[in-house]
Amino acid sequence: DVKVTQSSRYLVKRTGEKVFLECVQDMDHENMFWYRQDPGLGLRLIYFSYDVKMKEKGDIPEGYSVSREKKERFSLILESASTNQTSMYLCASSFRGRGRGYGYTFGSGTRLTVV
Amino acid sequence: AQSVTQLDSHVSVSEGTPVLLRCNYSSSYSPSLFWYVQHPNKGLQLLLKYTSAATLVKGINGFEAEFKKSETSFHLTKPSAHMSDAAEYFCVVSVRGGGGSQGNLIFGKGTKLSVKP
Asked: Domain A4-114's class?
């Protein structure tokens, strides 16, 4: 069964900490995405990557950065966590050329609480 | 620019009755449209997709959606609700045009479906 695995299901961090959210996919997908999900706001795209070492900003990149050193792994970094970054974070991946949504696979999410 | 609006944040139905979740879209191009479902504490799962073939699209678990260009709508329906259908549903449009965001997905704000026994 193909999978997108997010390393933590629940995470609690303190304000000002540097936070790493990890996502690994085993489908050899070129595209990887990080979304943030908040009640009443749906999913909002933070960053995405179409290839190793490549990254592009989504709709709400402020306060976040990403790293893609290997094809299967896409990390979301909160340089200095703040309480307004408390949210559910979802990782997704897809094949290039299927960018129109055919094959998006989502992870189960990481619920981050910043205190 | 593309956008999608889900007209109801919450819908409640009784088991065995029909389900209607409403979605309107805005797109300068012929859109690709999707419905995703998210059960509690789970990731998102693709229910069905429209990509300019048949306007009536059948998905998993008995759901279907009809693309109506004249009404810019893509409503999700099911003839008879089951308790296991209780979840959050997202209407999604795929970004068209050039640039690095080609093919990215724009999500509606979601509709929570409750199913009463």
From this structure: mainly beta
